[in-house]
Amino acid sequence: MKTVFLSIFSCLTLALAQERPEEVSPERARENFARPVVLAADDVRLFPEPPINYREAQGGGLKGRLDSLDYPSAVTGTRRKAQVYLPPGYTDAKKYPVLYLLHGIGGDEQEWTRLMKAHIILDRLMSEGKAVPFITVFPNGRALADDSPGSNPFEPHKAAGFAMFEKDLLDHLIPAVEGRFSTFTDREHRALAGLSMGGGQSLNFGLGHPEFFGSVGAFSAAPNTRSPEQLVPEPAVTRVRIRLLYISCGNKDGLINFSQRTHRYLRDHHVPHLWNVDDHGHDAETWGSNLYHFAQRLFL
Ligand code: FER
Known about the structure:
Layout: H1 2-16, H2 26-31, E1 65-73, E2 78-86, E3 98-102, H3 111-116, H4 118-127, E4 135-138, H5 156-180, E5 190-195, H6 197-208, E6 215-219, H7 228-231, H8 235-241, E7 244-250, H9 256-268, E8 274-278, H10 284-297
Parallel strand pairs: 3-4, 3-5, 5-6, 6-7, 7-8
Antiparallel strand pairs: 1-2, 2-4
Residues 19, 21, 24, 29, 32, 104-105, 159, 196-197, 222-224 line the site of 3-(4-hydroxy-3-methoxyphenyl)-2-propenoic acid.
């Protein structure tokens, strides 16, 4: 009787709470994209579209540079790869804040630079003085020995790698980055952001570990996002600790209800955050645009 009650209870909470990718079939997962979009009065644009050339290479190329890092991980039992963007004028004589920027379900450590030209977006902003200089790390957020997306990245065991990245990030990647580059090492100077699955990871791990991260960004967060009550169990604590909490989604994205749910809880519990609903879908336009706006508000 007790088991029956518990399993009914866990099914009910599952429907309202976080979807566990390791328990959901690929077909069922994809159906989330077809959810109806219902917009409320405050689901509106906070920021305009960036200038047309915001991710076009500048004459003379990058002022900063793209580097790479590999690090040993006890989570995967392998050496793992990350890309690293170093800002213009990077020098060991200074210390820099660090943003960890996470990819989506089909991506890897190259997705942000290939699809969104994130290194160019950041390089332009920093060389124009519109963003403070910071280091950006592009990890592979699928913490598996074979961390490629494979032919079906929605496959439960592939999707499960995104939850396993929490330990890899905190215990292995961050120490490797801070050992190799000239970084600040306090929470105020560390941020976590990402798109879709990476947006869910950012909310889950970033808000879950305020001792590590002062700022969090989630663009088009996926169903792996924990319920708002799990993300922010003590609004009064988050309210005073968080430096920047940025949430965005396109109004043509069937996943928007996961972000709306987070935004509405934060709003109702008076946790300061930025909520930007633009006119895009689940695509590179909204991710590039929101990185552009997020980066300008980070580490101020
Ligand atoms: C899902 C719908 C979308 C899901 C994941 C996604 C694992 C991720 C999309 C992306 O990262 O772009 O149901 O479940």
